[in-house]
Design a protein that fits this description.
This protein is an alpha+beta fold and 295 residues long. It has helices at residues 6-9, 87-92, 104-114, 123-126, 150-153, 288-294, and strands at 4-5, 26-29, 32-42, 48-54, 63-67, 71-74, 79-82. The chain has a domain at 4-159: Alpha-Beta Complex (Photosynthetic Reaction Center, Chain H, domain 2).
């Protein structure tokens, strides 16, 4: 599973930490300060897996990874203690480079340094190679789960005792669901259209009329062979064809109708009950969240 710096995963992550952001806390091994917390690495679910540790001058500014389960967090003192971490272990840990993503092989090297601590010895002290035993446990990069190393990745409540007061909040959210679909297409329909076109045709009419019987002067007589009178005859023929025209245009768009849905629920909140016997002095602290709401 890929790992992400918490600031890249959620730029507003501090709003979920209740003012308990451990970035910048001092790091101690036993009673000696050995460095500070530079950043956190989380998986795709947002669960913290590693603290990025800057060892400062302890090991010449080397940055290494500390599994979250190996840390004891003191929120009041703004400090973290690396459980059982020795100088030889820190020197054996692979260097963390923030420009290169942490891959499965890098994590296995880190785990193989911390795993022997459960058996009371370290990989460096036992002489075992950092990548030894991976095949023997029966998993690989595709089947590994952080649950296999719960001691490395789960916080020990005995070292992080606190009483959390819970309250319910009404969370209003929206989901977008498809309710239907509209398809607008075209189809071709046919019909029979009739049209009447008036046309004209010319015809030649020859009329013959008998002469009046009047004599013609010899000088007016003009007998000519082959004399012809020509008349051109025309008629109209219909020119009928089909042409396509734009009958109408159809535009398709979506419009949003807005509405407000009102909901009402009964919310529960836990309040702190402090029972005392005798006359002890008890500082119950300040509810910073409620104080800020009053402001």
């Amino acid at each position: 599973m890929p790992l992400h710096k918490i600031k890249d995963f959620d730029p507003d992550y501090r709003t979920h930490f209740d003012d308990q952001d451990v970035i910048g806390y001092d790091l101690y091994a036993d009673k000696d300060k050995i460095g500070s917390v530079d950043d956190l690495l989380v998986d795709d679910t947002g669960k913290i897996r590693y603290l990025i540790i800057n060892t400062g001058t302890w090991i010449l500014g080397k940055k290494v990874l500390l599994p979250i389960g190996r840390s004891r967090i003191d929120y009041k003192g703004h400090r973290i203690t690396a459980e059982g971490l020795t100088r030889s272990q820190a020197e054996a840990l692979p260097q963390y480079d923030g420009n290169i993503p942490v891959d499965y092989e890098h994590e296995e090297q880190v785990r193989n340094v911390y795993r022997p601590m459960d058996a009371g010895t370290t990989a460096v002290e036992s002489g075992a190679p950092l990548d030894a035993g991976v095949a023997a446990v029966g998993y690989d990069r595709d089947t590994y789960s952080y649950d296999r190393d719960s001691s490395l990745y789960n916080l020990d409540d005995t070292n992080h005792q606190s009483l959390k007061l819970y309250e319910e909040r009404l969370i209003a959210n929206k989901t977008r669901a498809k309710t239907g679909e509209v398809a607008v297409g075209k189809r071709v329909e046919t019909e029979t259209a009739k049209v009447s076109v008036p046309i004209e045709k010319e015809r030649v009419v020859i009329e013959r009329t008998a002469g009046a019987g009047t004599a013609v002067a010899p000088s007016d007589m003009a007998f000519q062979e082959g004399e012809v009178a020509r008349v051109e005859v025309y008629e109209e023929t219909p020119d009928i064809r089909k042409e396509a025209f734009v009958r109408e245009e159809v535009s398709v768009r979506k419009e949003i109708d807005r509405d407000v849905v009102n909901a009402e629920e009964t919310l529960r909140r836990e309040e702190l009950n402090v029972d005392t016997q005798g006359t002890p002095v008890v500082d119950q602290g300040i509810d910073s969240r409620r104080n800020s709401e009053r402001v």
